[in-house]
Design goal:
The chain is mainly α. It has eight helices and four strands.
Length: 224
């Protein structure tokens, strides 16, 4: 099956591959902290990372529009609650209540989505759209709180080949950043020193070729 988020072949047969599943879980877990962090940027011209401040002298809104929108009813709270409601409807479960402060509602919605992730990943055809919207919400908040220097993102190496005790491949994306002497998987913590890089590249390239050949075979199979 093809992952509905990254469109790579998923040998596990889910709607999301292991890497995208882990990334979605991390983003969900971060949303409450990102929501809290956006409060410091409600005032227009609030300093971003590094203490930079706006030098605009034109008339401005009393609050910054993007952080306000993301912290409002239709922002993170609405996105997570709507997706949780969709999960409950498709699973024929009682609709979750929407009560309390925005912080409390966001926390409950995130907890509910995390609890349903196994079902979402393996059973729900809407998993790709869900994961994409959660990614957009998290990335939008991060762009306000901590704008990223492109050099800090690092070069994309490929999927982490580490295997856990149950035999499942990690699959999280490895990146090599300038100045780093060891590549470390931010998900499973596995490290790859320079001596392993040639073998790591061969493994990742071979895995990519296998996935590409599989995707090329699919149209032929469907037409037969």
């Amino acid at each position: 099956m093809i992952c509905l988020l990254c469109e790579r072949h998923d040998a596990m047969g889910g709607y999301l591959c292991p890497g995208c599943t882990k990334a979605t879980i991390v983003r969900l877990e971060l949303l409450p902290r990102l929501y809290e962090g956006l409060a410091a940027f409600l005032q227009p011209g609030a300093p971003a990372r590094g203490g930079r401040v706006s030098t605009t002298v034109d008339a401005r809104m009393p609050v910054a529009e993007l952080p306000l929108t993301m912290r409002g009813p239709g922002g993170m709270v609405g996105v997570t609650e709507d997706w949780l409601s969709a999960v409950h409807q498709d699973r024929r479960m009682t609709e979750p209540a929407r009560a309390g402060t925005h912080e409390q509602r966001l926390g409950r919605a995130v907890a509910g989505l995390l609890a349903n992730m196994p079902w979402i990943v393996m059973t729900w055809p809407a998993a790709g759209a869900f994961a994409e919207e959660i990614r957009e919400a998290a990335n939008s908040a991060r762009s306000v709180i901590s704008p990223t220097d492109p050099a800090e993102v690092g070069k994309r190496i490929g999927a982490c080949p580490a295997v856990d005790s149950s035999g499942v491949i990690c699959g999280a994306i490895l990146r090599h950043r300038p100045g780093e002497t060891v590549i470390i998987c931010t998900w499973c913590g596995c490290s790859f020193p320079p001596a392993t890089w040639p073998g790591l590249k061969v493994f990742i390239d071979e895995d990519a070729r296998h996935e590409n050949s599989h995707e090329l075979e699919e149209p032929w199979r469907s037409a037969s």
